C-alpha cells in the first residue's frame, strides 16, 4: 500500500519528495526491502538512530542536494533532527504514535514558512486492528488529560499572543 501511494503520487507530481516516518526502524527495514524488490525499484535514503552523527549529516546534505523525487525512510526519533523541511513535501506517517505531540511535531517539519510546494500528508493505519485501536484510545485519553491539566495550570497573565497548534485525533 505504501509503495502504491508513493508511485501513484509520483505519477501525478514528479517533482515531489517523500518523508516516510514510523516509530519502528524494523518496519522501515521492511519498507527498504520492498523498495529494492519492487517492479520499479525506487532509490531511497535511510535516516535513523543507527547512523552515526557524521552519517546523518551526510544523509541530510545529500537530501538537500538531490533533485526530486526522493524518498527518505526516517524513524520518529530522528525526524526532529537536522532534516531540511524544504526537501520534502509529502509525509507518509505509518501507524498511530503514542503521543499526539510527536505527530504534530512531524507535521510541523513540513509546514514551514517559505515552502513553495503544497504539502501532502498520508496516514497509514491497519484496518480493524485491536492493537492500533487500543494505542489510539490510550493516546487520546492521555492527551485529553494532559490538555485539561495544562489548561488548569495556565494563569491568564501567562497566555501568549501566539497560536498553539492543536489537532483533534479521532
TrEMBL record:
SUPFAM superfamilies: P-loop containing nucleoside triphosphate hydrolases (SSF52540). This is Global transactivator. It comes from the Eukaryota. Residues 6-114 form the Helicase C-terminal domain. Pfam families: Helicase_C (PF00271). It comes from Fusarium agapanthi.
Amino acid at each position: 500500500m505504501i509503495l502504491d501511494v508513493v508511485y501513484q503520487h509520483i505519477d501525478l507530481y514528479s517533482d515531489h519528495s517523500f518523508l516516510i516516518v514510523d516509530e519502528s526502524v524494523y518496519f522501515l527495514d521492511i519498507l527498504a526491502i520492498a523498495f529494492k524488490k519492487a517492479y520499479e525499484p525506487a532509490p531511497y535514503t535511510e535516516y535513523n538512530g543507527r547512523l552515526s552523527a557524521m552519517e546523518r549529516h551526510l544523509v541530510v546534505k545529500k537530501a538537500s542536494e538531490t533533485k526530486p523525487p526522493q524518498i527518505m525512510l526516517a524513524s520518529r526519533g530522528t525526524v526532529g533532527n537536522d532534516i531540511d523541511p524544504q526537501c520534502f513535501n509529502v509525509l507518509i506517517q505509518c501507524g498511530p504514535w503514542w503521543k499526539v505531540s510527536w505527530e504534530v511535531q512531524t507535521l510541523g517539519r513540513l509546514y514551514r514558512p517559505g515552502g513553495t510546494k503544497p504539502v501532502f500528508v498520508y496516514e497509514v493505519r491497519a484496518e480493524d486492528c485491536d492493537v492500533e485501536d487500543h494505542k489510539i484510545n490510550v493516546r487520546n485519553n492521555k492527551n485529553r488529560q494532559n490538555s485539561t491539566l495544562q489548561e488548569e495550570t495556565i494563569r491568564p497573565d501567562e497566555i501568549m499572543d501566539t497560536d498553539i497548534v492543536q489537532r483533534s485525533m479521532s
